Amino acid sequence: MSIRLIVGLGNPGPEYEQTRHNAGFWLVDQLASSGLQRDKNFNALVAKTKIASEDVWLLQPQTFMNRSGQSVGALCRFYKLTPDQVLVVHDELDLDPGIAKLKKGGSSGGHNGLKDITAALGNQDYWRLRIGIGHPRTLNLQQGVADFVLHRPRKEEQPLIDEAIARSVQIIALMVEGNTNEAMLRLHTNK
């Protein structure tokens, strides 16, 4: 099955734009060459674009992170998309800045956006593109997780995150073509 919806997770509003939790938004912004439009039916910013000669929906929920499933579920129901046609791009505490990983299914790992999407779709069988932001503990920071994700990356972390997003953008066409094994191989071996 090939990807027909790419969801970038983040929080709406200018105060969150540059925070680690918005890494999913950053990637979708790069894919939306003609920009995203507000769609009140999905409570999201939405665009339809061509990737690898296929129509693909881009979505940035405009709910807060823990309600992302409302937008994802509504668009999937309306366009009759199945979970295995969905790629959710999100920040990942368990990966260092500069690392990006693909996986299908699995637990939410405590990520409230993923929990809500799983509830809305009725299962966990959607793709996840995990953009590493590091964990305050592994980065030797005395900061709680909630505070950490809602702050900007440090100046040495931002280029690493940007690089991981750029590498991720390069494998999106493979995902749209349904060539997920090749996409994973390229992303995971080209650190």
From the structure above, extract its key features.
6 helices; Rossmann fold
Give an account of the 3D structure.
- The structure is a single chain.
- The protein is an alpha/beta fold.
- The protein has one domain: Rossmann fold, CATH 3.40.50.
- The chain is built from 6 helices and 7 strands.
- The protein has a 7-stranded mixed β-sheet, sandwiched between helices.
- α2 runs parallel beside α3.
- The longest helix has 19 residues.
- It is globular, with a radius of gyration of 15 Å.
- It starts with a strand and ends with a helix.
- It comes from Undibacterium parvum.
- Monomer.
- Keywords: Cytoplasm, Hydrolase, RNA-binding, tRNA-binding.
Shape: globular
Spell out the helices and strands N to C: EHEEEHEEHEHHH
Report how far apart the termini are.
26 Å
Strand content: 15-25%
Summarize the amount of helix as a percent range: 25-40%
Strands in their spatial order, largest beta sheet: 2-3-4-1-5-7-6
Q: What's a quick, concise take on this entry?
A:
The protein has 191 residues and is an alpha/beta fold. The chain has six helices and seven strands.
List the helices and strands and how they pair.
Blueprint: E1 5-8, H1 23-31, E2 37-39, E3 44-51, E4 54-61, H2 68-79, E5 86-92, E6 100-104, H3 112-121, E7 127-132, H4 145-149, H5 158-176, H6 180-189
Parallel strand pairs: 1-4, 1-5, 5-7
Antiparallel strand pairs: 2-3, 3-4, 6-7
Helix pairs in contact: 1-5, 2-3, 5-6
